[in-house]
Amino acid sequence: MHFNYTEDNNNLIINGVTDFDIMQTMECGQCFHFQKIDDLEYGLVYKDNLLHIKQEGDKLILEDTSISDFEKIWKHYFDLDRDYKSIKEKLIEADERLREVIDKNYGVRILNQDFTETLMSFIISQNKQIPHIKKIVQDLSRKYGNYLGAINGEEFYSFPDVGQLGNIQIEDYRKCKTGFRAPYLFEAAMWIGGKENIGMELSDLGYETAKEKLKEIKGVGDKVANCVLLFSLGYRNSFPVDVWIKRIMEEMYFGKTTDNNKIMEFAKEKFGELGGYAQQYLFFYARENLKK
């Protein structure tokens, strides 16, 4: 994507952005470390970086952001260099029934998130609604992370890094309302802490090997592992199956109840290397359109 930049009072204005909607991207269940400020306006955290972003049509406004920050951090985070028009065309070619799903959710992009935070967040996510997950992530960040700044009176903190996680005990996690997930979070933090550059290593292992490696962590099954692989390790063929995906896949493709392994196998054959993109379009569509 070619970017046309304008700088105005420390704000970066990017014109001509296509195939991107900030609301759809932030609210599609792939991340939890953000706050909605207004329609198409968000405050969000990535590692030690805080961003205040607004969208007006094909224009993005990044407050207190330089061209250098955008090029180094946010362009990659929002996956803005990738050709989503082509991805969507290929998915519709693979299955015409995806046209409505994609048209309704045209602006979803898969974020390139931090490995440690993504792993911990999706362990938290088990049997939890998105507002609850966001609250726990926020509480852990406030208590153990670093203060990054405020947007419209809302304070933002970084998610605890590997060193900070090493000081959090099981009881500390329980105090943040993590419930049965507390020992899983503790074990995951210990697992990460003992492995330097583990995110990079996992990115190079190949999908199946990386997934099995993640599943060595107690409390990490196929769904959590696939989310981590998709949202932080670059495995765009990953196809996480949760309640919403199970429902939409059964409705669209099976016509009956089926098990998660069959759904993942079907997705692999149907969507191949684009499975993760299909998953995100289907997830957001299911959550917005299927009756609860």
Task: Please describe what this structure looks like.
This protein has 292 residues and is α+β, with helices and mostly antiparallel strands. It is built from 15 helices and eight strands. Helix 4 packs across helix 15 and helix 13 packs across helix 15. The longest helix has 15 residues, at 130-144. The chain starts with a strand and ends with a helix. The mean pLDDT is 94.
Unreliably modeled segments: none
**How many distinct helices?**
15
Radius of gyration over alpha carbons? Answer: 19 Å
- Report the major sheet: 6 strands, antiparallel
Question: Which structural category fits the helices and strands?
Answer: alpha+beta
End-to-end separation in angstroms reads: 37 Å
Biggest β-sheet: strands ordered side by side in the sheet: 1-2-6-5-4-3
Residue fraction in strands: 5-15%
What is the number of strand segments?
Answer: 8
Mean pLDDT: 94
Q: Give helix and strand order, one letter per element, not per position.
A: EEHEEEEHHHHHEEHHHHHHHHH
> What portion of residues is helical?
40-55%
Q: What's the overall geometry?
A: globular
Outline the fold blueprint.
Elements: E1 4-8, E2 11-15, H1 22-26, E3 34-38, E4 41-46, E5 49-56, E6 59-63, H2 67-77, H3 84-94, H4 98-104, H5 115-124, H6 130-144, E7 147-151, E8 154-157, H7 162-165, H8 170-175, H9 182-193, H10 198-204, H11 207-214, H12 222-232, H13 243-254, H14 260-271, H15 275-289
Antiparallel strand pairs: 1-2, 2-6, 3-4, 4-5, 5-6, 7-8
Helix pairs in contact: 4-15, 5-9, 5-12, 11-12, 13-15
